[in-house]
Amino acid sequence: MAFRRLGPAFLLAALALAGCAEEPRHQMPSFYRNLGTPTAVVDAAMAAQMISDYRANNGLPPVAVDPVLVDVAMAQARLMAAKESVDVSLEAGREPIVRLAKAGYVTNHAIENVSAGYRTLAEAFSGFRESKGHNAKLLDPQVRRIGIGTGYSPNSKYKVFWSIILAAEPTAPAAPTN
């Protein structure tokens, strides 16, 4: 008898739960996405928005994603991951302005933040803001363009390597690259 009294209540509860299952799930914001996987790609537009908002809060103009800068940053991050060290960025000829020029982006000002170990864009952004040197680059008044890339190294203790290139507008039209 008790079962008959619980039956309708149980049925209503089951229907209510089924209705909940059909509600759209909220997608995790891309700045919290774990980039510690071989196929993960950082959201460059989100990075530019985060950095632009931060710059605006400090009275500076925004930055825009530039595909050449993204390609150069990705190559740098992948090289660091392959060598399992950010020190490769200190080698002669690895300066961002040199690498950009080789890619056809000629400018009079380019800087770079490199790092390793942050698993999400939010972590990396927070770490860069907390570092005096990295923060100064985020707030450089000359930069208007950004490129960001990550490299993954499964055997490294860091796993994820980061390169963020910030540059002034190009001073010459982009040359075709081979």
Summarize the structure.
The chain has 178 residues and is of the alpha+beta class.
How would you portray this structure in words?
The chain is of the alpha+beta class and 178 residues long. The chain has six helices and four strands. Strand 3 and strand 4 form a beta hairpin. 31% of the residues are buried.
Average pLDDT over all residues: 83
State the distance separating the first and last CA atoms.
82 Å
Largest sheet: 4 strands, mixed
Low-confidence stretches: 1-24
- How many β-strand runs? 4
- Please state the overall shape, judged from the principal axes of the Cα atoms: globular
Helix content: 40-55%
Structural class determined from secondary elements: alpha+beta
Number of helices: 6
Chain oligomer state: single chain
The side-by-side strand order for the widest beta sheet comes to: 1-3-4-2
- SSE topology string: HHEHHEHHEE
Radius of gyration over alpha carbons?
A: 23 Å
Query: What fraction of residues sit in β-strands?
Result: 5-15%
Features:
4-stranded mixed sheet; 6 helices; 178 residues; single chain; alpha+beta
Q: How are the SSEs placed, and which strands pair?
A:
Elements: H1 2-21, H2 44-57, E1 64-65, H3 67-83, H4 96-102, E2 110-116, H5 121-130, H6 132-138, E3 145-152, E4 160-167
Parallel strand pairs: 1-3
Antiparallel strand pairs: 2-4, 3-4
Helix pairs in contact: 5-6
